[in-house]
Amino acid sequence: MNKETLKKNLRKIPDFPIPGILFYDVTTLFKNAECLQGMIDELYEMYKDKGITKVVGIESRGFILGGALAARLGAGFIMARKPGKLPAEVLEETYAKEYGTDTIQIHKDAINENDIVLLHDDLLATGGTMAAACRLMGKFGVKKSYVNFVVELKNLNGRQAFTSDVDITTLLQL
Length: 174
Hints:
Layout: H1 3-9, E1 11-14, E2 22-25, H2 27-31, H3 33-47, E3 54-58, H4 62-73, E4 76-80, E5 90-97, E6 100-107, E7 116-124, H5 128-140, E8 144-152, E9 167-173
Parallel strand pairs: 3-4, 3-7, 7-8, 8-9
Antiparallel strand pairs: 1-2, 5-6
Helix pairs in contact: 3-4
């Protein structure tokens, strides 16, 4: 995958959602067939030999590549959702945000101790949501977990939210 093609197709929206924020919109990567296929191909190559049994997509943009990658890897796909979105019994993890807290949940029967899990989301900024997802994997007792993002905003130091043993990969670092 040509990283310059991805960079050229990534939309940047100044002052969204509040003044002073430069928002990186990955939906433009999903609508471009070349970018979408290239990202799926690259992610497949990165993880095809890792024994992944489940891919967890973080709500909501993590569902797009996460689901496609799970199908390509022959793995199951699991949704990590905000509270009130999953109908059965859940495990959850609460995490701090800039103003308050948030929670992610996964169905209690979705993952088990025999799984090797790939956690996927679109963007690594401060890392809070994905770090919570990693802690949630600890509650499930998985064999191994990997973390992947499409884009990493390096200046926000999101990797500091994770313990040193977390294997993090990104397709683009900005």
